[in-house]
Amino acid sequence: MKKSKLSFLACFLVVVCLLAVGCGSKDTKTDKAPLVKTQQVGSGSLNDSSSYSGTVRGRYETNMSFQVGGQILSRNVQVGSPVRAGDVLMVIDSRDVVQKANQGDAQVASARANLDLAQRNLARYSQLYQENAVAAATLDQYQASYDSAFASYQNALAQAAQGHNAMGYTNLTAGANGVVSAINAEEGQVVGAGQTVLTLVQTNELEIEINVPENRVADVAVGAPVTVNFWALHDRADGVVREVAPMADNAARTYRVRISVPNPPTGMQLGMTASVSFAPQISGGEGDSGSAVLPLAAIYQNGDTPQVWVVGDDNTVSLKSVSVEDFGDNQVLVHGLDAADVVVTAGVHKLHEGQSVRTEADS
């Protein structure tokens, strides 16, 4: 008898628990409206797909070299050293240059002696010709000798001047204020004339260099305005496209673009990284009356008519037909919406007409 009562009591408790679970699940199914992601048409903007990483560079970067060859005796700068115009950056051994200058002076003296002799001979034979003592052909011969000696003398003078100029080329001097960005030669190294030994970047005018892929270079024009964000400075500045390379890089197949910054922010330095953003290039921009830029996921395609879900004042959704004008990267330009419309931008295929929803503001 006791066992029957216990069995009955156990069955009763199980039924009560099942009823409680069923009631709880029923409440769960009917508790809250779905949460949707929305965007107000008037505040929509294009994703900045035309954004490129760049580096702060100097507008004028000079690869410096000696005009004569020789062994480097001293290097007076390091990488990153600031320099001023006229500072001596490197010095090479001048002994060979001095010897060449002395050689030029000796050639001038020899040419001068030959010229004096030719001049005296010409004067002597001119006098004899006046006395009819020699033929005209003889006088012409000495006139030619004098002209040749004079030309040799002028040539010797030019070579001597070149040798003396070379004596001033043994010191590599900075032509402008700047900073040394690279050094390619060290003390004791023998370098030839024209061989790059260091790079000097002028710091009076800095700009941004970016690389644009070939499928985007048509959207970049000289004089186009851009926005430059500096990651290290947490600041931004307005820029202008100054130069677009006429040819793509052979390896990367990108075009080098230089951005000038008329009003650089405080702390802008060589080598800093920056993000350059171009103005949207999609046709019929979002400023057009009745036009809006939406994520591509906001379009609800029902047959041949594109539509979007619009959230009303009572937080219920309804479909509104739009016309598609253009496409961007994961974006679409549509016409037919009001600036105050709030459009669902995700999960559009899980909604139905008149359904109540919750937006980010409600949550």
Automatic annotation (TrEMBL):
GO molecular function list: efflux transmembrane transporter activity
InterPro entries from the UniProt entry: Beta-barrel_RND_2 (IPR058792), MdtA-like_BSH (IPR058625), MdtA-like_C (IPR058627), RND_pump_MFP (IPR006143)
Compartments in which it is found: Cell envelope
Domain Multidrug resistance protein MdtA-like barrel-sandwich hybrid: 66-201
Domain Multidrug resistance protein MdtA-like C-terminal permuted SH3: 293-349
A cellular component annotation (GO) from this entry: efflux pump complex
Keywords annotated in UniProt: Signal, Transport
Top-level division of the source organism's lineage: Bacteria
Span of the signal peptide: 1-20
PROSITE patterns listed in its UniProt record: PROKAR_LIPOPROTEIN
Record domain CusB-like beta-barrel: where: 208-280
Major location category of this protein: other
Record's keyword annotation contains Transport: yes
One Pfam short name: RND-MFP_C
Stored NCBIfam families: RND_mfp
Membership in a protein family: Belongs to the membrane fusion protein (MFP) (TC 8.A.1) family.
Name of the protein in its database record: Efflux RND transporter periplasmic adaptor subunit
Organism: Selenomonas ruminis
